[in-house]
Specification:
Blueprint: H1 4-19, H2 28-31, E1 37-40, E2 47-50, H3 58-63
Antiparallel strand pairs: 1-2
Length: about 60
């Protein structure tokens, strides 16, 4: 009988081989969440994504 952990290791090895990755730490890239958040500009109302702490889009920020 094959254990589930053996299947997972085989699957990971198969995945890494197809993607050209060599170590299992590379698989962590898939699970990371984005740090970007959606923000609505207080000046023009444009919705944009940013990782900075701002309330204005790039255009409006440059005008101020």
């Amino acid at each position: 009988m094959v254990k589930d952990t053996d299947i997972d290791k085989e699957f990971e090895a198969l995945l890494k081989g197809k993607m050209g990755w060599k170590c299992s730490c590379s698989l962590d890239i898939i699970d990371k969440e984005s740090t970007l958040k959606s923000v609505t500009c207080k000046n023009c109302g444009k919705v944009f994504k940013t990782n900075r702490d701002t309330d204005f889009c790039f255009k409006c920020e440059n005008k101020h």
